[in-house]
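Q: I have 216 residues here and want to know how they pack in 3D. Can you give me a structure?
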Amino acid sequence: MKIDTDGKAAKPSLLGQAWSLLKRPTGRWSLGAILLVGFSSGILFWGGFNWAMELTNTEAFCLSCHEMEQNVYREYRGTIHDQNRSGVRATCPDCHVPKPWVHKIARKIQASNEVLHKVLGSIDTREKFEAKRLQLAKNVWTTMKETDSRECRNCHTFSAFDLSRQQKRAQVRHDEAIEEGKTCIDCHKGVAHKLPDGAFNAERELNETWNAIHKK
């Protein structure tokens, strides 16, 4: 306890009072009860948060926007990622939402910008979408280039390839990719969606810019 110069006990500071309150239980609740309630509340909050995250991480949620359903989803239907001999599908979030938690949260925050453009109606017609298609594609290509095609590698990895069971052309290209350190998106643009007009020039510019920055 601090003493003033006149011998009287000094009044604790506001910060000191708050710290004192935090250190001891209340007259009504024991410390154990407080910890139990806090721990239970934390579990409920964390469970609810993750439930909401996963709810927004489904194909059905993606298609709730007509911009998605009317455009890129219709192009995806019938592709190798939608229907194939093994019956294993890669849906929208499989390719466009990271699985690692930190990267997933960053992607969800980024998606708030997409919500804004949904409200603004930036691509609410086919004509608007086609006008922005090339830029939208370039954004995805750049992201996949920067992450070394992270979402592709959830299913496809060079180390798991059995080149002897692939067609000759695929064997040669994959062998080159391994040797040259290429990533999936370098060769597999337009696998699930139609290539936009100007894609080849955009690809060349992207590669030139990338090489200028990363291969100095």
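Q: Anything worth noting?
A: Residues 157-189 form one domain. The mean pLDDT is 87.
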